[in-house]
Design brief:
Helix content is about 65%, strand content about 0%. It has about 300 residues and is an all-alpha fold. The chain is globular, with a radius of gyration of 29 Å. It is found in: Cell membrane.
Length: about 300
C-alpha cells in the first residue's frame, strides 16, 4: 500500500519561528461611515442646530428684535393650547392631512393601474397625469382659486349643463373651503403617487401574476391577494409623503383662501406665519412650530410603524 504524505508548506512561505501570524484587517466595515460625515455635518449645521436654537426661544419672551430675553417656561405652550385659532388650525391641519392622504393614494393607485396596461397611449397618459406635479404649488393654488370662484369655470360649467343649482362659492363657504383645497392638492400630486405605485407594479414578477391566473384568481382576487401585498413598500412611502406634506401644508392655503373664511382653512403653517410676521408674536409662533414638529414626527412614526410590515 502506497504511503501518503501530508502536503508540506514551501520554505519561503513558512512563518519565522517565534513570530505570530499577522492579523487580518477588516476591510469595508468602518470606512463607509467616513463618507457620510460631510453630509451629516452640513445637515447638523443647516438644520439641526438652527432648529434646536429656535426651539429654545419657544421658552422665552424674545420678540424677534431685542437682544435681551428671559425664560418664561411653558407659558408660550399654554398660550398655544388655550388659543382658539391655534386649536382650529390644529384640527384643520389633521383633517386636511387625513383627507388628502386617503384620496390622493386611492387616485394615484387607480391611475397607476390604468397606465400600467399595454395600450399604446399609456406613455401619453403618464405624461398628462404627471404634468400638474411640475407646477409650483403657489401658482396651482392661484389657478384653482379662479376656477372655484363664484364666476369661475367650475360654476360656469355647472350652469352650462343645467346644474346651476349646484353652483357655489366653494372657497367662501366654511363648509366647503377646506375640501376645495383638498381637491386641488389631490389634482396636483396624484401623479406623484402614481409614479411611485407604477414603479411598484412594474417590479412585480409576471410569473407571480400568471400563477395566480392559472390558479383561477379573478381580477379583484388577484389585486387583493397578490398585487396589493407586493405594493406594501410603495404604500408606506406614499402614505408617509402625503401625510407629512398635508401636515405642513402652506402654499395652497395661502393662495386659495389665506386661511379664511374666518379660521375655516387655517392650518398650523399659516397660523405660524401670521403670528410671526403679521402680529409680531415670535414666541407664540415658535411654540406653535414646535408643536407642529412634534405632531408630524409622532404621526409619521406611528404611520411607518403600522404600515412597514402590514399585510393587506
Amino acid at each position: 500500500m502506497a504511503a501518503t504524505h501530508a502536503p508540506t508548506t514551501p520554505p519561503d512561505l513558512r512563518e519565522p519561528p517565534g513570530q505570530a501570524p499577522p492579523r487580518r484587517r477588516r476591510v469595508g466595515v468602518r470606512a463607509p461611515w467616513w463618507f457620510v460625515v460631510p453630509a451629516i455635518s452640513i445637515y447638523l449645521f443647516i438644520v439641526v442646530v438652527p432648529s434646536a436654537n429656535g426651539a429654545l426661544f419657544s421658552f422665552t419672551d424674545w420678540n424677534g428684535l431685542r437682544p435681551d430675553w428671559s425664560f418664561v417656561g411653558l407659558d408660550n405652550f399654554a398660550a398655544v393650547f388655550s388659543d382658539r385659532t391655534a386649536l382650529d388650525a390644529l384640527v384643520n391641519t389633521l383633517t386636511l392631512a387625513a383627507a388628502a392622504t386617503i384620496v390622493q393614494n386611492v387616485v394615484g393607485l387607480l391611475l397607476a393601474l390604468g397606465v400600467n396596461s399595454l395600450v399604446k397611449s399609456r406613455y401619453v397618459f403618464r405624461v398628462i397625469f404627471f404634468a400638474p406635479v411640475v407646477l409650483t404649488p403657489l401658482v396651482a393654488g392661484y389657478v384653482w382659486s379662479f376656477l372655484l370662484s363664484p364666476n369661475g369655470a367650475v360654476n360656469d360649467a355647472l350652469r352650462a349643463v343645467g346644474l346651476g343649482a349646484l353652483a357655489h362659492d366653494w372657497l367662501g363657504d366654511p363648509d366647503t373651503a377646506l375640501y376645495a383645497i383638498v381637491l386641488e392638492i389631490v389634482w396636483q400630486f396624484s401623479g406623484y403617487s402614481m409614479v411611485i405605485y407604477l414603479a411598484g407594479l412594474q417590479a412585480i414578477p409576471a410569473e407571480v401574476l400568471e400563477a395566480a391566473t392559472i390558479d383561477g384568481a379573478g381580477a379583484w382576487s388577484k389585486f387583493r391577494r397578490v398585487v396589493l401585498p407586493l405594493l406594501n413598500g410603495a404604500v408606506v412611502i406614499n402614505v408617509m409623503l402625503c401625510l407629512i406634506g398635508g401636515l405642513k401644508q402652506f402654499d395652497q392655503v395661502m393662495a386659495m383662501t389665506g386661511g379664511g373664511p374666518g379660521t375655516a382653512t387655517e392650518t398650523i403653517s399659516t397660523a405660524i406665519y401670521k403670528s410671526a410676521f403679521s402680529l409680531g408674536d415670535f414666541p407664540f409662533s415658535i411654540a406653535l412650530a414646535v408643536v407642529m414638529t412634534v405632531v408630524i414626527a409622532v404621526l409619521a412614526a406611528v404611520q411607518f410603524r403600522l404600515t412597514q410590515r402590514k399585510s393587506f
